UniProtKB/TrEMBL annotation:
<keyword id="KW-0449">Lipoprotein</keyword>
<dbReference type="InterPro" id="IPR050975">
    <property type="entry name" value="Sleep_regulator"/>
</dbReference>
<dbReference type="InterPro" id="IPR031424">
    <property type="entry name" value="QVR-like"/>
</dbReference>
<keyword id="KW-0732">Signal</keyword>
<protein>
    <submittedName>
        <fullName>Uncharacterized protein LOC108558575</fullName>
    </submittedName>
</protein>
<keyword id="KW-0812">Transmembrane</keyword>
<keyword id="KW-0336">GPI-anchor</keyword>
<keyword id="KW-0472">Membrane</keyword>
<feature type="signal peptide">
    <location>
        <begin position="1"/>
        <end position="20"/>
    </location>
</feature>
<dbReference type="Pfam" id="PF17064">
    <property type="entry name" value="QVR"/>
</dbReference>
<keyword id="KW-1133">Transmembrane helix</keyword>
<keyword id="KW-0325">Glycoprotein</keyword>
Length: 159
């Protein structure tokens, strides 16, 4: 029975779909705690149209052209969503943006589009990533998932 529970946890960690994903949603230019949301105990938000609009608003605060990349309207359809983390230097100041976004697919790769934007002395994207588990756009990323998988493997080996 214990092996069955461990196997179930293992599969859950591997195959979780982001239909109801919770992500950090903030921008460090408005909220300095956004630099390290876990340490500062920031709340995560459920990804939906409002959180997508918030991410678009954050992007527009970097530059209006970035805001256009993040325009997304899901009209209450159930679509999988991902968490986003972007680090951008704006006029020499590093700004961290965290939010919700559509996952990468054959037609859409928001991070690729961000890096394709003209960059220079005024704006320079240092990092952009998407992930698909609750809170994965924090500073620790997928450590909890990896630890869960390792614990499941160890328990399986021991028993």
């Amino acid at each position: 029975m214990q092996t069955l529970v461990v196997a179930g946890l293992f599969l859950f960690a591997l195959f979780k779909i982001g239909y109801c994903i919770d992500c950090y949603s903030c921008i460090s230019s408005d909220n300095p705690d956004c630099v390290d949301p876990e340490t500062h105990h920031l709340d995560r938000v459920r990804c939906d149209q409002k959180s997508l609009s918030d991410t678009e608003k954050f992007a527009k605060s970097l530059t209006p052209d970035f805001g256009k990349i993040f325009e997304v309207h899901i009209h209450e359809h159930r679509v999988p969503l991902n968490c986003l983390k972007q680090v951008t230097k704006v006029q020499g100041r590093e700004i961290i943006m965290r939010g919700c976004q559509l996952p990468k697919d054959d037609r859409l790769d928001v991070c690729k589009k961000v890096f394709e934007m003209p960059q220079g002395e005024l704006i320079d994207v240092k990092h952009c990533s998407l992930c698909d588990s609750d809170g994965c756009n924090g500073t620790t990323g997928r450590i909890a998932e990896v630890l869960l998988i390792l614990a499941a493997v160890l328990l399986t080996i021991i028993h």
